[in-house]
Structures are given as structure tokens and as C-alpha cells.
Amino acid sequence: MNNLFEDIPTSVPSEIFEEIVTTQNLRIERIISHGQSSPEQGWYDQDENEWVVVLSGFGVIEFEDGREVILSKGEYLHINSHEKHKVTATSLEEVTVWLAIFYV
């Protein structure tokens, strides 16, 4: 048995991406952030759809069309494939734990 809140480091100098399950059509990741954001230039432009939930902390996602979504603990979001987006902020006060499910 595993727990999504186990082995979370106290110091997170860069985001941590951990694959939990990977199949041909599905990928589940635990992402750990602590104050990080996406690089200034460029957008995530993924071939897969993404469903993401914040389990602790918070994250701010900006879309290329200017929309901004703030996700707090328990809140989730669906991002269509090729919907350009980036993370503009995560909590500095606590570690942000995300669960992301990518699928085709």
C-alpha cells in the first residue's frame, strides 16, 4: 500500500514529478511544488488531456487566452489536450501536492 502524503521532502528546490501509474493511454503523477512556477517563456502544450487536483497547498494556472484559475485544497480542473497553460504560482507557506491524470 502507498500513500500520496508519504515521503514528501521538507525542502523542494525544484518541482518533483513522480509517475505512479503508466499505461499506453493513461499516466498518473504526483507533483510536489513549493513556490515554483513554470518557466517565464513557453506553455505546456500536451498531447494528452489532463485532470488535476490539488491535495494540499494551492496552485495558480494561467491559460494562453488569459484565464487564470486558482486551485486550493480539494479543487480540481480538466485541461483539454493542446490547451496551452502554465503554472504561475504555488504556495510558499506549505508544500503543494498535486495529483495529475493524463489520458488520451
From TrEMBL:
Protein name: Cupin domain-containing protein
UniProt-listed Pfam families: Cupin_2 (PF07883)
Record domain Cupin type-2: where: 43-102
InterPro entries from the UniProt entry: Cupin_2, RmlC-like_jellyroll, RmlC_Cupin_sf
Lineage, highest ranks first: Bacteria, Pseudomonadati, Pseudomonadota, Gammaproteobacteria, Vibrionales
Superkingdom of source: Bacteria
